[in-house]
Amino acid sequence: MSTRHGQGLHLGGPWQTGARIALALGLLLALGGCSSEDPRLPANLYEEARKLNLEGRSLEARAMMRQLAERYPDSEAAQQAKRDLYLIEAFVNRDMADRQKQVRAAMKRLTDALIRYKAKKGEYPLSTGDLVPEYLDQVPETPWGHPFLYRAYVTRPIEDLPTKRGPARQRFNTKLDGYYLACLGTDLLPGGEGLAADTLIKDGALWGEPSFPAVPQPQPLR
Q1: Over the stretch 54-70, which tens digit does the pLDDT of each residue have?
Q2: In 10 A of CB 111, how many CB atoms?
Q3: Residue 66 belongs to some domain of the structure
Q4: Which end of the chain is more exposed for a tag (fewer CB within 10 A), N or C?
């Protein structure tokens, strides 16, 4: 939770946030269905949204005020909601930027630990849990409590052996010399924007393409 100047931002888990937004929008629709001609309705909706924001539930408040501005654009309450939205958007955007910064910092701690592990062991670990406690005090998580997705793999399962004479020889390579480290955002699904956006590191480098590469299947047992 992050609180600033009395107006906190509670982004919570994705399921909690989604449920709360749905509840707020459900209240909006329910009230709207009672009496669309009631002149008190926009003011009541604005008051509900204001309370949500004061409780630190700014995402729900933002969604409710947007709906209010769209459904009753000429009302005084909608005009006030539009003014409030500038401030709420600024807080939400700042909080999102802070959390994205935390994601990058956590992934950097993991990649640094993976580099040190490989330098000592000659390959990457099967699990990030193997980095504890020698390389990390604990395995980092996302700011919303999700684990990062990690998979080590063999980049060249069959490698050529140099020979002085005769045909080239080959052997199976079982060293885990590559890895994927990913954050799929708050929704745990590929794609998305904002906090739901994805971040992928492949073999220590940030993946810049819009779609992820094919992740290798689990490696054969040695």
Answers
A1: 887 888 889 899 999 99
A2: 17
A3: yes
A4: C
Residues 90 and 160 in one domain: no
Task: Return the closest-CA partner of residue 121 out of 165, 173, 160, 176.
Answer: 176
217 DSSP β-pair partners: none
The answer to the question of residue 217 being in a domain is: no
pTM higher than 0.70, yes or no?
no
Give the 3-state secondary structure of residue 32: helix
- Tell me how crowded residue 219 is: count the other CB atoms within 10 A of its CB: 14
Nearest alpha-carbon partner for 58 in 49, 47, 69:
49
Determine, yes or no, domain membership for 129: yes
How many other C-beta atoms are found inside a 10 Å radius of the C-beta of residue 118? 18
Structurally, the chain folds into a number of domains equal to 2
pLDDT tens string 29-58: 554 454 445 778 899 899 999 998 888 788
- 120: its two tokens: 């000592």
Tokens for 79, please give them. 């005009």
- Tell me the residue ranges of DSSP E strands in the chain: 2-4, 7-9, 149-153, 158-161, 169-172, 178-183, 199-202, 205-206
How many helical (H) and strand (E) elements, i.e. helices and strands, does the chain have? 4, 8
Indicate if the alpha-carbon torsion angle 30, 33, 36, 39 is positive or negative: negative
Q: Which two tokens stand for residue 7?
A: 């107006």
- In 3D space, the residue among 176, 171, 164, 91 whose CA is nearest the CA of residue 130 turns out to be 176
